Fold these 2 entries.
Entry 1:
Amino acid sequence: MSIENLDINALDRYLSAHIPGFSGLTSAKKFAGGQSNPTYLLTADSGRYVLRRKPPGELLKSAHAVDREFRVISALADTDVPVARGYHLCTDDSVVGSMFYVMAYVDGRIFWDPALPDLDNAARTAIYDEQNRVLAALHGLDVDALGLADYGKPGNYFERQIGRWTKQYRASETEVIEPMDQLIEWLVANIPADDGEVALVHGDYRIDNMIFDNEAPRILALVDWELSTLGHPYADLAYQCMQWRLPNKGVVHGLGNADRKALGIPTEQEYVESYCRRTGRSGIDSWTFYLSFGFFRLASIAQGIRKRALDGNASSPQAVEAGKMTRPLAEMATSLIEASAQADNFQ
């Protein structure tokens, strides 16, 4: 029996043999969200689970690393950073057609719109403070104690990341986008001096990758760890802060046209200042660089989504629209750079 491109009978036999207590798989339903690794809700007699797999087809080297995701959520199981419990990693492609892992299903709220239209102001304020708290907790983890000292290369993070994402962008390039070329050139020329900071970074820290308690402003699980690595904490912070500048239309969910004060949502500067207080920092220099890097990386990801859609390997029906965001994102970054002379630091 095949459901959602998964052989349910074969998967049931495999999981029953590898996950203690697992039995009676009856269905697999693909989640609508997500553009990268297909994710499924598994329903079995023994309960509900989540399966996350590599997509089918030819893939870019090092992309869709579900084995890294499983490793990091397993390492964080007993920390102040909430994650879903990891049950099993399967590296045998013959079971479902690609590598996958199974984790616990976490029942809670997922907010797709960062303006949180269904909540009141007090709840919005608390939700944003909780995101800030978990981000600070993540960057304060002792990676050595967690067995993650080799989870990434220390030092020169932005130089390596710019090189990596430029290479992936070129491999997925379908047309010449001049603002993207300009952005890459500017980033290479403006990398801040390496300050030696190394932390576990999530890589895609945004509100729709968090599952909140149904009743309280508390994160139950931070999900989608595909882009996690050892890196610089400002990459996560700036990546999340892009939502303050992005529009809220189509596949993009941002706060660019929202009245934050009226909604009880902190401004970008207030959010950064809260993070600095929690992590013992006096301020952040070169903020324009970190934001621009975030736009560049997201634009590169969008281009990869576009290429997969054109090749027929996209995992989401929204992939075509998401893939169109490369140029607008690059243009936002170049506009930000042009305006950066007015104020480049948070102090």
Note: The mean pLDDT is 91.
Entry 2:
Amino acid sequence: MEERPPIIRIGNLTKRFGGGVTAVDDVSLDIGEGEFFALLGPSGCGKTTLLRMIAGFEVPSEGRIRVDDQDMVGVPPNKRPINMVFQSYAVFPHMSVSDNVAYGLKVTGVARDEAGRRVEEALDLVKLGGYGARMPDQLSGGQRQRVALARALVKRPKVLLLDEPLSALDAKLREAMQLELVRLQHAVGITFVIVTHDQQEALSMANRIAVMEAGQVRQVAPPAELYEFPKNRFVADFIGKMNLFEGTVAGVQATRLLVDVKGLGRLTLDAEGPASGAVGIAVRPEKVRLCREQPGDGMVALRGKVNEVAYYGDTSFVYVTDESGRTISVNLQNEARRAEPAVSVGDSLWCAWNPNDSLILNA
């Protein structure tokens, strides 16, 4: 991936609230110019607090934030080269679409002719050309979101911050708006930083993702690297589904790791890991295959019975339980057109996967 010069530099940033609560704990990261960057994590992990400190709505307890090579300490929100789109949109209900978009320009004293031209450009950019005279209550939720985006972009910030901007939309509109945001970011070329708890949203939109837990950044990586090569159990489990087995390192053989896993035997894995001790062995559900016959040599295999099938149209999640009571989830693509599922509850099947699709995870 091409290295981008940083436009945001965050160094040892900490935010403490009353009662001994540390919302952001010694976070350091760079966000590149023109990058679509996501802050991802569960509720309460500190991602929105971090975003609000970048915007200037929260004051750090410790650490530094630099934007476009300027120290942001003491710089109020309206003086930063940043704009923010809130979860609630915050569209003024008593103003027309054009007046909503022009509001920030009017406050800063931009001439009326210049403001009018920039408002039209911004509305065209978010595909709302011709909607300027309408009132917010005449718009759909997706259109109101576009108005909020146009109002943020019309001031031509260097960075656009988005706090859970799609959470109020229904599933289909949300998916469409994800594509629109990516298109918009490419069109304007500025840095977008989005906060979300939705893994699929972050994976489908961002160039890089920072996964947060308990105020700390656990891993920063592009989407594919984050999904296929998580650095710890939290990231592996939070990003998508994961089957996890407990193992013990039995030794190292050249570049291979020998791991004993209960129910699976000794696995020989082409992977880096500790020379001894306990480790987690994990495999994604889509890497696992269901077989009626015992798989051939070289595959990791586990036999069990199907105890649940969850049908989702294009895919089914199949849950197989072995003799020890351990359950394996398998993502089964529904490739053939049929009225009945390919597998049923009670079927006795083998779960098999390539050893190289196994991940070795520490705490």
Note: The chain has a mean pLDDT of 87.
